[in-house]
Design a protein that fits this description.
heterodimer, A: 698 residues, alpha/beta, twelve-stranded mixed sheet, 20 helices, globular, B: 86 residues, mainly alpha
Chain lengths: 698, 86
């Protein structure tokens, strides 16, 4: 691997699964499978289902944290890392269900969760616990993009390392069995009553499972410096949105993700030796995935060797992608492909797939691992035994082109590009039948429609192809509360599938992608700073030449905050910015110049720490310094508090508007916006008038 | 199919799940295809959940997979009702 300095390695892995502790137990389980059992978290016996795959240990309130800590310890030991070596490491967590394992405490607004459970109801809690336990100080984020969350987390880590923001990132994923999600999948008739049989003619859904996984992802340079020579190569990733339907997958959308991953890895399709499928054994999902494989990966000469570990492990929801990556890495190391169990009668339509139904020697070539999620989110990663040369790309400047925000039912627009049109009609949405958009979906859709409508046609197309990154603090939890209420009052049949279809936190972004044909990546970050993370992530993807434009922002609404805090208001709103590489006529052009990410914490970052972070961002203090979410909500030092007392991820983006507006109007040369909050990462973003300084993106 | 009678309670559910049938109830016939009545696959799952609740029956996946007309739903309800009284 000498000479490949910008490569990304995976140097450690750990997991806790229904098969037991560690990679060895997982691998043995993948070869043999296991019988489903009734859940101990809740009574699963009344549902049309053969049971679940649970951990051996009894359920506990700190299960997500405990599972992740054990998986992290394994991964850190395998990577041969000391605790001091972890100090600068970053962390990204993928989860969909953490926090809902507390049953009624998770969903009862009054009197709310018992005091000792307050932090645990948040999905971000395991990330805070890992950060505290290992003293992590690098960049962090929490991603909840349904079942594509954990491959998305791996992609996020890859970008942090490629950008040299971190040498080391822990990629964590955890999901636990929860009654509300189990009943949701039941309402959509996605739970098998027999076995998980991916790509079989008789497939009828999956067995729901739980588990946690952690990967140590590291720059090749860092690994070499510390003498770590073992590790698989993370060659690339690709993401897409189906832009088709919230719960019916699209072969075209999946295929875009696969193609994007191939391009990022610099590979031809013939160089993929093995495909680890999402393979949920749902009739529609397997059909779409098989068609995408046929179109993108299969040439004239061969069928695509395909593995699908849900046949033995079951579906671990947001952690599913990471488990498949762990299986792929273990298979490479042991030179064996884990078999698809229960596929004696493959669907005759899937002739392009070479379904691996008994363990066999690992084929040559790279391994592609795919995950799809509700809403049509797709993220695919490519790993191999060795790194490949990757051309370095000069940083491309990123400009703030336009934006929109909603306030009391009205959509407001702002633009800083000469061809931006304030009065142009909203982009015409495509009709959608079901599910109907709820308020959060409508807020974000209205903001997106107005934003796209105000952009010139070329930039509109650029942003649709580029994608949409979103942040939220409270997600779509009103639907989970309604589902739980249905279960309590009407029993196992009490869940409306429409609620489940709208429930994942990425649904508003997915709805926008369906309505406006946004075919690029959609990703949803959690926390008050989640929308700022979305902005910064979008800027990073543009700056590295991956896309030429994206939309990014946030949404939140009070009905989704299940546990109100006195004195804090959640305005119902959505806010979006369009970032592109087009500087326009440069007279009002504002560059999103640089950013710094601070680790997630249970308390907001204070002004003194923001000052320290600012020194990493720019050598001189900007004219305008705005802080969102700091304690006390008042001015602190040079920081101006923005909209104190308002929570949620939509409001912070308004602070970015203000920074851009002041620079564009000539009132400031540079401005910094810092966003923090409880159970949130902290992100600082530096904006400057174009040409104000030559300092590069960092 | 022509011997099947659509219960009034099912008519209510069909109208609840299909604006098209609400606007034109004459489309509620045993031979009408659900997909032509503004009920897509997700809406059908929601309708089915209501049917199961209303008639206290279980409709299994295989039966639902071959239910394409309103009459097919009526048959499932009748079959479910019969099996409960047997």
């Amino acid at each position: 691997m000498d000479g490949i300095k910008n490569g990304v390695l995976i140097t450690g892995a750990g997991c806790v699964s229904p098969f037991g502790e560690g990679l060895g137990a997982l691998w043995r389980g993948l070869l043999t499978g296991r019988e489903a059992v009734p859940s101990r978290w809740f009574d699963s016996t009344a549902f049309r289902s053969c049971g679940v795959h649970e951990l051996a240990e009894p359920p506990s309130i700190d299960a997500p944290i405990s599972m992740l800590q054990r998986a992290a310890t394994q991964a850190i030991v395998e990577a041969d890392l000391s605790e001091p070596e972890l100090r600068n490491a970053g962390l990204v967590l993928a989860s969909t269900s953490a926090g809902w394992h507390l049953g009624d405490d998770s969903f009862t607004a009054v009197p709310g969760p018992r005091a000792e459970l307050h932090g645990l109801v948040r999905k971000e809690a395991p990330a805070v616990a890992l950060t505290e336990r290992w003293g992590l100080s690098g960049p962090s984020a929490v991603i909840s993009s349904a079942c594509a969350s954990s491959t998305g987390a791996l992609a996020w880590a890859c970008e942090r390392i490629r950008a040299r923001e971190a040498d080391l990132v822990l990629v964590a994923a955890v999901d636990v069995l929860t009654e509300v999600v189990f009943a949701g999948f039941h309402s959509l008739r996605l739970l098998t009553e027999v076995k998980t049989r991916p790509f079989a003619a008789s497939r009828d859904g999956f067995i729901l499972a739980e588990g946690a996984g952690v990967l140590v992802v590291e720059s090749a340079e860092h690994a070499r410096r510390r003498g770590q020579l073992d590790g698989a190569a993370l060659l690339g990733w690709g993401a897409s949105s189906d832009a088709f339907h919230l719960t019916t997958p699209s072969a075209e959308g999946i295929g875009r993700g696969l193609s994007c991953a191939l391009a990022d890895a610099g590979l031809e399709n013939t160089e993929i030796g093995l495909y680890h499928a999402h393979g949920t054994a749902s009739p529609a999902s397997d059909r779409a995935e098989a068609e995408a494989i046929r179109k993108v990966l299969v040439g004239q000469e061969r069928r695509m060797p395909t593995a699908a570990i849900k046949s033995s492990l079951g579906h671990t929801e947001g952690a599913a992608g990471l488990f498949a990556v762990i299986a792929a890495l273990t298979g490479l190391e042991l030179d064996t492909v884990p078999p698809i169990l229960h596929t004696s009668e493959p669907d005759p339509d899937f002739g392009a797939l070479d379904l691996v139904d008994t363990p066999r020697p690992h084929p040559q070539g790279a391994v592609m691992i795919h995950a799809s999620g509700f809403g049509g989110a797709n993220c695919t990663v490519v790993v191999d035994r060795t790194l490949r040369e990757r051309p370095s790309v000069p940083r491309i400047p990123v400009y703030v082109t336009a934006g929109t925000w909603t306030h009391e039912g009205q959509v407001h627009r702002a633009g800083w590009h000469p061809r931006w049109e304030a009065e142009s009609p909203t982009d015409e949405p495509r009709p959608v039948r079901s599910p109907k958009p709820d308020r959060s979906c409508l807020l974000l859709s209205n903001a997106a429609g107005a934003l796209l409508g105000s952009l010139p046609a070329d930039l509109r197309a650029t942003c649709k192809q580029g994608g949409l990154l979103i942040g939220t603090e409270y997600g779509m939890q009103q639907h989970h509360a309604r589902m739980m209420d249905g279960i309590r009052h009407r029993g196992h049949r009490g869940v409306d599938p429409m609620d489940f279809a709208l429930s994942t936190f990425n649904v508003p972004a997915a709805m926008v992608s369906v309505l406006y044909e946004v075919t690029g990546q959609t990703e949803t970050f959690l926390g008050r700073a989640g929308s700022t993370e979305a902005l910064v992530s979008a800027a990073g993807l543009i700056a590295t030449g991956r896309v030429r434009g994206m939309m990014a922002g946030g949404y939140d609404a009070p009905e989704n905050r299940l546990h109100p805090v006195s004195g804090e208001e959640v305005p119902a709103g959505a806010t979006l910015l369009a970032l592109t590489t087009d500087p326009g006529d440069r007279s009002k052009t504002v560059e999103l110049a640089a950013s710094v990410r601070l680790p997630i914490a249970s308390q907001p970052t204070d002004a003194a720490c923001l000052d320290e972070a600012l020194e990493r961002l720019t050598p001189r203090r900007p004219d305008l310094m705005i802080a969102v979410g700091t304690e006390a909500g008042s001015h602190s030092g040079d920081w101006r508090a923005f909209m104190p007392g308002q929570t949620g991820a939509a409001t912070p983006v308004r602070a970015h508007f203000e920074a851009v507006e002041q620079i564009a109007s000539g009132d400031a040369e540079e401005a910094v916006v810092a966003v923090t909050g409880p159970y949130s990462a902290t992100v600082l973003v530096l904006y400057r008038r174009i040409g104000a300084s030559s300092e590069d993106w960092s | 199919m022509s011997n099947l009678i659509i219960p009034a309670s099912l008519v209510e559910l069909l109208i609840k799940h299909s604006p098209q049938l609400r606007d034109d109830p004459s489309g509620i016939t045993v031979d009408a295809y659900l997909s032509d009545s503004g009920i897509d696959s997700l809406e059908l799952l929601s309708l089915t959940a209501d049917v199961e609740q209303t008639y206290d029956i279980e409709i299994d996946n295989a039966d639902l997979a071959v239910s394409v007309t309103i009459g097919d739903l009526v048959a499932l309800i009748d079959g479910g009702a019969r099996s409960k009284t047997e």
